[in-house]
Amino acid sequence: MTDVAALDAADPLRGLRERFALPDGVIYLDGNSLGPPPKAAFAELERAAREEWGQGLIRSWNAAGWFTLTDSLGDRIARLVGAAPGETVVTDTTSINIYKVLHAALALRPDRSVILAEADSFPTDLYIAEGVAASRPGTGLRLAASHEPIESLIDARTAVVLINHVDYRTGVLRDMAALTARVRAAGALVVWDLCHSVGALPIDLNAAEADFAVGCTYKYLNGGPGAPAFVFAAQRHHAGLVQPLSGWWAHAEPFAMASKYRPAAGIRRLLCGTQPILSLRALQAALDVFDEVDLAELRAKSLSLTGLFIELLDPLCREFGLRIVTPRETQRRGSHVSVAFEHGYEVMQALIARGIIGDFRAPDIMRFGFTPLYLRHRDVLDAAKALADILQSGAWREPRFAVRSLVT
Amino acid sequence: MTDVAALDAADPLRGLRERFALPDGVIYLDGNSLGPPPKAAFAELERAAREEWGQGLIRSWNAAGWFTLTDSLGDRIARLVGAAPGETVVTDTTSINIYKVLHAALALRPDRSVILAEADSFPTDLYIAEGVAASRPGTGLRLAASHEPIESLIDARTAVVLINHVDYRTGVLRDMAALTARVRAAGALVVWDLCHSVGALPIDLNAAEADFAVGCTYKYLNGGPGAPAFVFAAQRHHAGLVQPLSGWWAHAEPFAMASKYRPAAGIRRLLCGTQPILSLRALQAALDVFDEVDLAELRAKSLSLTGLFIELLDPLCREFGLRIVTPRETQRRGSHVSVAFEHGYEVMQALIARGIIGDFRAPDIMRFGFTPLYLRHRDVLDAAKALADILQSGAWREPRFAVRSLVT
């Protein structure tokens, strides 16, 4: 049996758990969907509301740096994704940012007309790609079927490849460098969706020569529910960057009140309208935590946690027919473990009733997210024990666990 | 001399001032740009952060109603704009919502190709209209020049007219019923931008048979810096509503994780991605204040405040060449008074230095917003006195008042 106490005692990140407000009696394995609040976020929100909003009022647009928070927070995320300063902004939602960069990519490849994505992609990526294709005559959307390698579909008509770094359903981690090289060699551009990897493992967009990326800040980054997303564009594309959501925050002189649009220089071209400052301040407090984090240590701990969980689940797989969907090879694994089981919905509800919170994705996937910032090996052990007990006792068969809720 | 004490004593809304956190020594005349915090917003933010986010974690998407806040807050704004339940959602930014409804309107009028707007419109409306036109081959943007009545340009090619209810620069209030009737008689659709009217005066979109509307929640609604905007679509258009920002929140079954987009029924088609919940909670507290407000009383007080300010400014106009740009006819006046003056920038900085906060819009407009929820007639008098003193003493000539800041 693994000595979880020894692993936790040797964990270089163990001190970070204290930075988070976690409810008593909960083992939180859903930080891959919504991260918990860093304690500092409460104080920061109060300060922003009472001082900046209440005392500073309109003056805070200048005095408190509200107008450039999109950029300053973007530059802090840059360190986590391997971007240079001035290549990332925090703004809008992942969906809207995908829309912007797909349009931008298509405009950069006017002789090509196909958006290539995966049928198993995170759904909103596909919905937005559909919206882009439908609104641009002649643009097509081509989807790689399950288990069909997307790289095998890249051809001379491919303008842009939209791909998830970690698959939300399976937890598969893609080889960013290899796939980006393959896309670029074919003359196409790549958009990486980092929603399920940023904040959980090291990312190096510029080392991979990636073109565009988007990502979410409320999962592993712990920015708060619905906190604005980020978008990255490699500096070499900035001069030619056009996107149709050309709002006033993307204007070269937003306060000149000119009637004609003239795009800002650089990454601000990917902005659009006024951003929710209070939510951005909570995100800022969440990013402060990462200032102390060595991403290699983060990754090592993540793999240790997910590896332990997989090891503990193996006997349950044999006994109850659970199937671990997430790869065992560490270089192909993100920071969550997905387990297929016919009664996964009910089992997950039974776990949640015991304070072990993961989530479920249709049709049959239980997801367990292991955030290295605040989870311990003993949490992994306790979660696995509870899962074993629920399966062995049949506790998941209680009718209340079959009730479906709107958001699962 | 007007007896401001008597006017304030007779003000039926006088009790509402206590609901707001206003700094000492400030007369805040910029609620038309960023409303001040309702005191309840502080408690609501803290509750949402500590309890919903911190204790509820992912469970709050269901348990705290996060997923339907777009709709529930939209229905509360509906009362303020004359919409029926299910016709309004709070989401994204004004700019992005304009993008959605312009696309939707163009799709509803496939035999027409022109977006008509005003050259003096709020700039982001024009920038977005440019973005829509540029991304839709064959679509044109036509602008009415200053002082050219936009209605005179409506013709058989006009698909949609985008117009501001209150002009941000001049404070002119448009006749919504008359202009909407004119647009509809010509077979076109109308998009009303309510940013500078909502929360300051009664609006009746459905009585006017308006098609679409957008508006901001951080000005007269006091929802907090950058709080998400709202968008209205008349129920009769819902079945045919298509817009290209087709993100997962607009899906008929967002948690079915289908790979194909299928639009939700009704107004949720105008949603896109995940919204910033903390900012929405502050907005909710701000909307609570309006539950007690009779909009006819609000309008009467607004006109009383702006009328008094205009009356007090008349002697300064004669003496110093100030020019009141906002109409004197009450039916053509919004809730702010705009004053043109060559040295308006410096004068406004001198006023701000004395705690009287309005703003400046290029090239020469000082704007004074009069929010009836928390301003008193004596504030109007004090502001006018300070303005007179600054002009008479020449205090605005101090070099520090000429320093330009990023956000004016």
Give the helices and strands, then pairings.
Two copies of one chain form a homodimer.
Chain A: H1 4-9, E1 27-28, H2 39-56, H3 60-63, H4 69-81, E2 88-90, H5 94-108, E3 114-118, H6 123-135, E4 140-144, E5 158-164, H7 176-185, E6 189-193, E7 212-215, E8 230-233, H8 277-290, H9 295-320, E9 323-324, E10 336-340, H10 344-353, E11 356-357, E12 359-361, E13 365-369, H11 377-393
Parallel strand pairs in A: 1-11, 3-4, 3-5, 5-6, 6-7
Antiparallel strand pairs in A: 2-8, 7-8, 9-10, 10-13, 12-13
Helix pairs in contact in A: 2-8, 4-8, 5-6, 9-11
Short description, anyone?
Chain A is α/β, with parallel strands linked by helices.
Q: Given the C-alpha coordinates, what overall shape of chain A results?
A: globular
Report the mean per-residue pLDDT of chain A as an integer: 96
CATH superfamily of the largest domain in chain A: Type I PLP-dependent aspartate aminotransferase-like (Major domain)
Quaternary structure of the protein: homodimer
Query: Per DSSP, what share of the residues of chain A sits in E-state strands of 2 or more residues?
Result: 5-15%
What would the CATH topology of the largest domain in chain A be? Aspartate Aminotransferase, domain 2
The first-to-last residue Cα distance of chain A is: 33 Å
State the secondary-structure class of chain A. Answer: alpha/beta
Number of extended strands of chain A: 13
What is the total domain count of chain A? Answer: 2
At the first level of CATH, the class of the largest domain in chain A is: Alpha Beta
Provide the succession of SSEs of chain A. Answer: HEHHHEHEHEEHEEEHHEEHEEEH
List the chains of the largest interface with their residue counts: A-B, 95 and 95 residues
Proportion of residues in helical segments of chain A: 25-40%
User: What is the radius of gyration of chain A computed over CA atoms, rounded to a whole number of angstroms?
Assistant: 22 Å
